[in-house]
């Protein structure tokens, strides 16, 4: 539906998907490749993760136009072992490479009970939870990770050498809400620090350090410094583990070898991802899994809430509720995102 200038619009999912596909086709992608990309980005929007949804057509589009991302990527999948897949993304759009790797891991897991896909020569592949949902709906539990541009200093260090690399976990519930956990390695995103600066507010000293590596409450100093990892040195170790799997073992770039898409938009990033999938049907019946997953959630829900207005939930419930609501009533899309999609689709 139409909206006044500057205000968001509610767009039916089918309509938004088609607009997104046409927009990426307008940027030079073959239609099926555009469908793969849009599958992930629209799921992100459905989850309410608008910063990682179709708004990404701005950054993806700029890099496609300057040749930093390959519009006609020829993705190759090799099988060096029965349960192992190696995916070369040919510098394609990240969600396209991610979907190829997810399908490769699913195919390996369907044959072996467990499947592991390593992807290289990729780019930013969106949030992890959409991949986790796709896998869960097909009956697979998953651990998925990606490395990222460096924004975190090594623990005790004074320059950015570690990526804010996300990792996600998903476990299917055949008769209820899937468990979906999607998390990056920093305490907060840089966007929260930017918002504090705009509002003239101080930040907790657990969010970031200044350029000398000292914790700060000044958002300006924080933006000139580095994000702090979750859990202190434990989060630092977890960030390194994700990069070892996603970057080093996949034969992609890692740590400071990863190029910044902001500083070098016309150069390949060579990001890496990993997809570890388990076919839960090899462990027991769908009824068995549903009963255990529902009991698992019930135990959590039964905990008396410290704030009655905020009952205990398990990860993924908020996103799945937003998905159901927006599928019924339309997806909220910012006016500038909608305008850019229409422009690339040749409608504006």
Overall description:
By secondary structure, the protein is an alpha+beta fold. The chain has eleven helices and 13 strands. The strands form four sheets. The chain has a seven-stranded mixed β-sheet with strand order 2-3-4-12-5-8-9, with helices on both faces. The chain has a two-stranded antiparallel sheet with strand order 1-13. It is globular, with a radius of gyration of 20 Å.
Largest sheet geometry: 7 strands, mixed
How does the helix and strand content classify structurally?
alpha+beta
What radius of gyration results from the CA coordinates? 20 Å
Share of residues in strands: 15-25%
Shape: globular
Give the strand order of the largest sheet, numbering strands 1, 2, ... along the chain.
2-3-4-12-5-8-9
Note the run of SSEs as H and E.
EHHHEEHEHEEEEEHEHEHEHHEH
How many H/I helical runs? 11
The strand count comes to 13
Report low-confidence residues grouped into runs of 5 or more. Answer: none
The level of helicity is: 25-40%
Q: End-to-end span in angstroms?
A: 16 Å
Mean of the pLDDT scores?
95
């Amino acid at each position: 539906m139409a909206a006044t200038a500057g205000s968001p619009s509610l767009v039916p999912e089918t309509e938004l998907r088609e607009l997104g596909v046409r927009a990426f086709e307008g940027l030079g992608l073959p239609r099926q490749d555009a469908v793969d990309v849009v599958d992930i980005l629209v799921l992100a929007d459905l989850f309410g993760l608008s910063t990682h949804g179709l708004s990404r057509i701005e950054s993806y589009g700029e890099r496609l136009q300057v040749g930093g991302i390959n519009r006609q990527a020829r993705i190759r999948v090799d099988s060096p072992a029965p349960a192992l897949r190696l995916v070369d993304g040919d510098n394609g759009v990240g969600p396209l490479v991610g979907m190829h790797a997810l399908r490769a891991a699913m195919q390996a897991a369907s044959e072996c009970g467990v499947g592991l896909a390593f992807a290289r020569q990729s780019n930013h592949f969106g949030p992890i939870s959409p991949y986790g949902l796709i896998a869960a709906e097909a009956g697979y539990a998953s651990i998925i990770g990606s490395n990222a541009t460096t924004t975190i200093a090594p623990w005790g260090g004074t320059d950015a050498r570690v990526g804010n690399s996300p990792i996600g976990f998903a476990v299917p519930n055949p008769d209820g809400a899937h468990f979906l956990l999607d998390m990056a390695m920093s305490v907060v995103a840089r966007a929260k620090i930017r918002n504090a600066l705009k509002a003239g507010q101080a930040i907790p000293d657990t969010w970031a350090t200044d350029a000398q590596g000292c914790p700060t409450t000044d958002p300006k100093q924080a933006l000139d410094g580095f994000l702090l990892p979750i859990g202190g040195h434990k989060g630092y170790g977890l960030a390194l583990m994700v990069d070892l799997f996603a970057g080093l073992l996949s034969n992609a770039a890692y740590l400071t070898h990863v190029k910044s898409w902001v500083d070098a938009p016309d150069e390949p990033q060579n990001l890496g991802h990993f997809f570890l999938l388990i076919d839960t049907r090899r462990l027991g019946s769908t009824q068995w899994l549903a009963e255990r997953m529902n009991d698992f959630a019930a135990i959590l829900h039964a905990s008396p809430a410290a704030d009655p207005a905020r009952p205990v939930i398990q990860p993924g419930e908020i996103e799945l509720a937003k998905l159901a609501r927006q599928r019924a009533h339309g997806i909220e899309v910012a006016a500038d995102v909608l305008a850019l999609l229409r422009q690339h689709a040749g409608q504006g």
